[in-house]
Amino acid sequence: MMTISKALAAGCLVLASVGAGMAQDNPMVGGAAMMADRNIVENAANSADHTTLVAAVQAAGLAETLQGAGPFTVFAPVNAAFEALPPGTVDTLLKPENKDMLTKILTCHVVGTNAMSDAIATMIADEGGSHVVETLGGCKLTAQASGDTITLTDENGTMATVTIADVRQSNGVIHVIDKVLLPKS
After folding, report:
1. Could you tell me the CATH number of the domain that includes residue 87?
2. In terms of Cα–Cα distance, which of 161, 136, 167, 159 is closest to 47?
3. Which residue range forms the structural domain that includes residue 79?
4. Domains identified in the chain, total number
5. How far apart, in whole angstroms, are the C-alpha atoms of residue 37 and residue 21?
6. Going by C-beta distance under 8 Å and a sequence separation of 6 or more, which residues neighbour residue 183?
7. Which residues form the signal peptide (predicted)?
C-alpha cells in the first residue's frame, strides 16, 4: 500500500510540474496565466484585459475558427484599445447587421502563421527597418522595431505597440497590442 501511495504522489508531482511549466514560459495576461496547451480563444477568455475582444470574436462567429488548428498569430487589442474608439463604435459593431464589418476588423488582427517576436524582428531588420504583414482580413500592417519594441501601423496610419509579446498558444501565438487596427478607409 505504501508503494502505491508513493507512486501516486510522484505521479501527481510530475503532472503538477508539467502544468506549471506550460504556464511558466508564458507571460501573464489580464491577470491570468496563459497556458500554451490551450487555444487562442480559451486563453483570451481568461484575460480580464480582453473581454471586449472575446465578445467581438463571438459576435463575428470567429470563435470556432480561432479554436481551430491554425497556426494563427493574433495581435490582440486590450479593452482600453476598444474604449479609445469613438463613442458607440463597439456597440454598433456588435450588432448582427454589422457582422461583416466586425469580421473584417477582427481578421485584420490575424495572420495565418505562427510569428514569434524574434521572427518578426528579423523580418523587419532583413527588409531595412519595416516589414509589411498581410492579414487574413486583407489588411496590410507595417511592422517596425525600436529596440525590443515592435509596432504595427495600419493603412490609415494608426500605430499599435506590442505590449506583451510571444504568448504561446496550442494553435499559434498572441501578441497583446494597445490599439485597434482598422481596414483601409
Report:
1. 2.30.180.10
2. 167
3. 2-177
4. 1
5. 11
6. 104, 105, 108, 137, 138, 139, 154, 155
7. 1-23
In-domain check, residue 95? yes
CA–CA gap between residue 67 and residue 45 (Å, rounded): 12
pTM of structure? 0.85
Q: Is 125 part of a structural domain of the chain?
A: yes
Residue 185 inside a domain? The answer is no
Q: Is residue 183 part of a domain?
A: no
3-class DSSP state for residue 144?
strand
Query: How far is it, in rounded angstroms, from Cα 179 to Cα 185?
Result: 16
